[in-house]
């Protein structure tokens, strides 16, 4: 299921959401226009700013990264991170592996971010987004603190936005593209169904994971789960749906 738009208009211009989308796109373009090649594996210009769980857990910014090389298994590649190394928790939120990765993340942020920003206000939304990303990174690191596989993507922070949206607007209708074999259609479904299905897939996928922290296809499912849980809990602590009623 791919969301296309919701029927939940925002009363404000979501400047922070727009800025986050632009920053992610700019970072992606900078990353793919430079970089190098190690043992046949291309790395981006912003490679050193990706997050490595073991670097975070032991506090060593000079530990090498490990990447899967075809026919060679995992190989070690130099990865001198900035110091202090925890900076990569935030820089990695603005980096993406490929066009499909950033396209999917920005689509979800575009559809659901404006309404959460409308409820929280600009600066509180930015803090909420970054803290959600921090919680997602913590969940991923705790799931496999010895992993030296780099992590990138805004998925964890956006998952926090999705968790907040599901609490705030469970009945909002979302126009969704659905694939049923060769049959493709669109249907308007409640946000609680779409986002509930999304988090169910993340939890289910952990049972199919290739390792404690890295799912099949290199997806950090625990980061998604941690971000979503942090977003739902965080918005409840801030007042939940009462915030929406008060603003109205």
SSE map:
Elements: E1 2-6, H1 15-32, E2 36-38, E3 41-43, H2 53-58, E4 65-69, E5 73-77, H3 87-91, H4 99-120, H5 122-143, H6 155-168, E6 173-180, E7 183-190, H7 191-206, H8 221-237, H9 241-247
How would you characterize the overall build of this protein?
- With 248 residues, this protein is α+β, with helices and mostly antiparallel strands.
- 51% of the residues lie in helices and 15% in strands.
- The chain contains nine helices and seven strands, in the order E-H-E-E-H-E-E-H-H-H-H-E-E-H-H-H.
- It has helices at residues 15-32, 53-58, 87-91, 99-120, 122-143, 155-168, 191-206, 221-237, 241-247, and strands at 2-6, 36-38, 41-43, 65-69, 73-77, 173-180, 183-190.
- The strands form three sheets. Strands 1-6-7 form a three-stranded antiparallel β-sheet. Strands 2-3 form a two-stranded antiparallel sheet. A two-stranded antiparallel ribbon has the order 4-5.
- Helix 1 (15-32) packs antiparallel against helix 4, helix 4 (99-120) packs across helix 5 (122-143) and helix 5 (122-143) packs across helix 6 (155-168).
- The relative contact order is 0.16.
- The model has no long low-confidence stretch (mean pLDDT 90).
User: Can you tell me the overall shape?
Assistant: globular
Spatial ordering of strands, largest sheet: 1-6-7
Largest sheet: 3 strands, antiparallel
Number of helices: 9
Strand content: 5-15%
Helix content: 40-55%
Characterize the quaternary organization of these chains: single chain
Mean pLDDT value = 90
- The beta-strand count equals 7
H/E series, N to C? EHEEHEEHHHHEEHHH
């Amino acid at each position: 299921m791919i969301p296309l738009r919701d029927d939940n208009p925002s009363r404000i211009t979501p400047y922070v959401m727009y800025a986050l989308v632009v920053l992610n796109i700019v970072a992606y373009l900078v990353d793919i226009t430079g970089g190098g090649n190690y043992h046949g594996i291309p790395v981006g210009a912003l490679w050193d700013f990706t997050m490595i769980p073991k670097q975070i857990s032991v506090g060593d910014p000079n530990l090498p990264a490990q990447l899967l090389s075809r026919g060679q298994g995992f190989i070690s590649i130099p990865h001198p991170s900035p110091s202090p190394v925890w900076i990569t928790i935030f820089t990695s939120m603005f980096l993406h592996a490929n066009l499909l990765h950033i396209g999917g993340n920005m689509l979800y942020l575009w559809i659901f971010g404006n309404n959460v920003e409308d409820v929280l206000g600009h600066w509180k939304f930015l803090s909420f987004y970054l803290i959600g990303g921090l919680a997602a990174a913590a969940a991923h690191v705790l799931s496999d603190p010895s992993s030296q596989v780099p992590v990138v993507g805004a998925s964890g922070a956006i998952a926090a936005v999705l968790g907040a949206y599901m609490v705030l607007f469970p009945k909002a209708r979302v126009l969704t593209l659905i694939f049923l074999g060769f049959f493709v259609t669109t249907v308007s479904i409640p946000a609680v169904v779409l986002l509930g299905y999304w988090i169910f897939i993340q939890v289910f996928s952990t049972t199919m994971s290739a390792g404690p922290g890295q799912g099949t296809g290199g997806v950090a499912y625990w980061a998604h789960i941690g971000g979503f849980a942090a977003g739902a809990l965080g918005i409840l602590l801030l007042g939940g749906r009462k915030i929406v009623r008060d603003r109205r």
